[in-house]
Design brief:
With about 280 residues, this protein is mostly helical. The protein has helices at about 1-25, 30-70, 70-75, 80-90, 95-105, 105-110, 115-140, 165-190, 210-245, 245-250, 255-275. The protein folds into 2 domains: about 1-70; about 80-275, Invertase/pectin methylesterase inhibitor family protein (Butyryl-CoA Dehydrogenase, subunit A, domain 3, Up-down Bundle), CATH 1.20.140.
């Protein structure tokens, strides 16, 4: 009996082994490791390739956007004659290096016209004044120094009570200076040749017109001078106001930034005024 049971047990065991053996046979550990490494390697290669493709696409898109946003004048190389004309005109200003560097991108548009050059210089000054005005207003907003209240002593922000009134005055006077530079620029356009007709809109005397046109040209140049001079006076009012507000206001971070900004923009306005003075009428 014991022999019969043992033989049947062995028989069932052999049958189960024959059935599931091929399915459950374990693979060698080394084979599994190599297989997984190959799969991971393929995934890494595809990931790196995809990232490189995305990076190249992003760089190309950024380059295209930057190129499309660049001003056309800045991409043009001025002719030697245009550069020489600009250098000669800038030599008559108080800040010739700044004059040359800031107006060189527009030298090709000037066409060696003193009136056109003065117009561009007034536009550059106007843009600088607008940027400074916006910055002063931003300092006031972040410092809590709006029209309603000023920040309490010791509070964070862009301004302290001693400088808030001076900064408000600066925001107003610099904004007015930008408007004056804009008026000057608009007046100077009347001295420029009409691109379509080949004549000036009201002042052909700049290119050799009659007595009436000569008087009109002098009037327009005089207006441009007056408005740029007033713009410079407004810049000085801002700087003086910060000094008069006291040492604490002038030496604060906001006071120093605005004072430096006024000193810088005043050079652009001064150059524009000098170039207007050099218009032959």
């Amino acid at each position: 009996m014991r022999q019969i049971i043992n033989s049947e047990s062995h028989s069932h065991t052999d049958q189960l082994t024959n059935v599931i053996g091929p399915m459950a046979a374990p693979q060698p550990r080394a084979a599994l490791t190599i297989h997984h490494l190959r799969r991971h390697l393929v995934l890494v290669v595809f990931t790196v390739a995809a990232a490189a493709t995305r990076g190249a696409s992003t760089r190309a898109s950024t380059h295209t956007t930057a190129a499309s946003c660049a001003p056309s004048a800045a991409t043009e190389s001025p002719s030697p004659a245009a550069a020489s004309f600009l250098r000669a005109r800038c030599a008559t200003t108080l800040y010739p290096a700044l004059c040359y560097d800031s107006l060189l991108p527009y030298a090709s548009e000037v066409h060696e016209s003193p009136a056109r050059l003065a117009h561009v210089a007034a536009d550059v000054a106007k843009a600088r004044l607008r940027a400074l005005s916006a910055r002063v207003k931003d300092i006031l907003r972040h410092g809590g120094g709006g029209a309603e209240t000023a920040p309490a002593e010791g509070e964070g922000g862009g301004g302290r009570p001693s400088e808030i009134p001076a900064l408000r005055d600066c925001a107003s006077t610099i904004s007015a200076a930008a408007s004056l530079a804009r008026q000057s620029s608009a007046e100077l356009t009347k001295l420029e040749p009409d691109a379509a007709a080949g004549t000036t809109s009201s002042s052909s005397s700049v290119a050799g017109g009659g007595m009436s046109s000569s008087r009109q040209a002098r009037w327009e140049v005089s207006n441009a001078k007056t408005w740029l001079s007033a713009a410079m006076a407004n810049e000085g009012t801002c700087a003086d106001g910060l000094v008069e507000a006291g040492a604490a206001a002038a030496s604060s971070s906001a006071g120093k930034e605005v004072t430096a900004g006024v000193a810088a923009v005043k050079q652009y306005t001064s150059n524009a005024l000098a170039l207007v003075n050099g218009i032959p009428v």
